[in-house]
Specification:
Layout lengths: L28 H8 L13 H10 L3 H4 L5 H6 L1 H4 L16 H7 L5 E3 L23 E3 L4
Parallel strand pairs: 1-2
Length: 143
């Protein structure tokens, strides 16, 4: 059986009620078509900031378990506050399996385009295919 293709899109700072199927002013015709056929997105799990939310999507776990208990910029500005605290490593840690790794194990080719922002350290060791940018072909902005 052929595996289905799928695409995950993350929009920063977008609430479900901002889009047209839920009464918002942002026109989203494809979401409207889905809603008109009975497909409504009604179960949301998120964090109040983008990096923790992204880590939950990429790991399928709580953002503290994934190592991003706080917004990366806050962690980078106050490293001593977070140093040595489990759940505040500042990158998608190895206690969790990354979605891309699970998909690749199942035979998928994975790619990320756009904003990665699940690591505080932007040194060369944190480039695609290394410690915190796990198992994705990367194009776009990493910060």
């Amino acid at each position: 059986m052929k595996q289905p293709n799928f695409l995950i899109i993350v929009a920063d700072d977008l609430g479900f009620s901002d889009t047209s199927p839920y009464g918002g002013e942002i026109k989203t015709p494809n979401l409207e078509r889905l809603a008109n056929t009975g497909v409504r997105l009604t179960n949301f799990h998120t964090a109040p900031a983008c990096s923790p939310t992204r880590s939950m999507l990429l790991s399928g776990t709580d953002h503290h378990i994934a190592g991003l208990g706080q917004l990366i910029e806050h962690m980078a500005q106050n490293p001593k506050v977070f140093e040595g605290r489990p759940g505040y490593e500042g990158y998608l840690n190895f206690r969790v399996a990354a979605l891309s790794e699970i998909l690749q194990d199942a035979g998928y080719h994975t790619m990320l385009s756009g904003k990665w922002q699940v690591l505080a350290d932007t040194s060369p060791r944190n480039t695609p295919k290394t410690s915190s940018n796990r198992s994705v072909e990367f194009i776009g902005i990493s910060g």
